[in-house]
Design brief:
single chain; about 250 residues; alpha/beta; 4-stranded mixed beta sheet; 9 helices; elongated; binds heme C
């Protein structure tokens, strides 16, 4: 499951999700490789419409979808989904034209067709998800969605954010960035625990999260990424903060 979250997560948080750019075939293969074995292994031939099993299956969606109203990630928030017209959540700016023009209203039947094969149901839509073959898994998931998307409050469903995401508002000293210098091809990042780490410029990613769960203004967050410890990401509260923070200094 962690693999699902991480594989999806890096796409979601790197701004490669949705928007005008089509998801690359490579990324779809990554998603399939990680997401499908999870879904299949979770399949058990038991009674249909089991919302508690559906909650487990929803983990394959949670990397891209929250159940908190207007908390959008790679995909739109699913709060209040049933009865909603596809592609119309006003706070989500990255719908594909195909989804917006589909005229579909979300209910058990349309969701079943969507989850079985998103692009088969709505050609040219852009949800990077291959689909779920097993009807029993789809019906459990839909039973869960029906309950969880109607609850319409932040306490329903999994916590907002990626599974395993750190709390960007209450950073550990080692994650809290105090300063960043750049010279000649190296970013040196000093954190609140007094450590300074150097990164080759192509190994450091700058990201933003302007949502309520993003970092505080002036307090960007450093997170390691990659096995070797040579790569990392820094999440800022806004794009303006990035160049203001980085000082060219040898
Ligand atoms: C890798 C990210 C990703 C995953 C995983 C994912 N989705 Fe999506 N989803 C999206 C994106 C992006 C869109 C918008 C697609 C478009 O505009 O064509 C979307 C759209 C939707 C919509 C339409 C919402 C609307 O407002 O019209 C539904 C419903 C949905 N997803 C349900 C699910 C469910 C259930 C799962 C899990 C089985 C799931 N998605 C998995 C990214 C994802």
């Amino acid at each position: 499951m962690r693999l699902v979250a991480n594989a999806v997560c890096s796409g979601a948080r790197n701004g490669q999700g949705g928007g005008r750019t089509k998801w690359s075939a490579a990324r779809q293969i990554v998603l399939l490789t990680f997401a499908l074995p999870f879904l299949l292994s979770a399949a058990k031939p038991e009674a249909a419409n089991d919302a508690s099993k559906g909650e487990q299956y929803f983990r394959a969606c949670a990397a891209c979808h929250s159940l908190t109203p207007d908390h959008n990630m790679t995909g739109p928030s699913l709060a209040g989904l049933f009865g909603r017209k596809a592609g119309t959540l006003a706070s989500f700016p990255r719908y594909s034209p195909a989804l917006q023009a589909s005229g579909v209203i979300w209910n058990e039947q349309t969701l079943d067709a969507w989850l079985a094969g998103p692009t088969r149901f709505i050609p040219d839509s852009r949800m990077p998800f291959e689909g779920i073959e097993q009807p029993a898994i789809r019906s459990d998931l839909i039973a869960y969605l029906k309950k969880a998307t109607a609850a319409n409050d932040a306490t329903s469903g999994p916590r907002v954010g990626m599974p395993g995401d750190p709390d960007l508002k209450n950073l550990q000293a080692e994650n809290k960035v105090l300063s960043i210098t750049y010279c000649p091809d190296t970013y040196r990042v000093t954190t609140a625990d007094g450590q300074t780490q150097g990164f080759w410029e192509r190994n450091l990613r700058f990201k933003t999260d302007s949502s309520p769960i993003g970092p505080d203004k002036g307090a960007p967050a450093l997170f390691g990424a990659g096995m070797q410890g040579d790569r990392a990401s820094i999440i800022f509260s806004s794009p303006e903060e990035i160049s203001a923070f980085v000082k060219r200094q040898c």
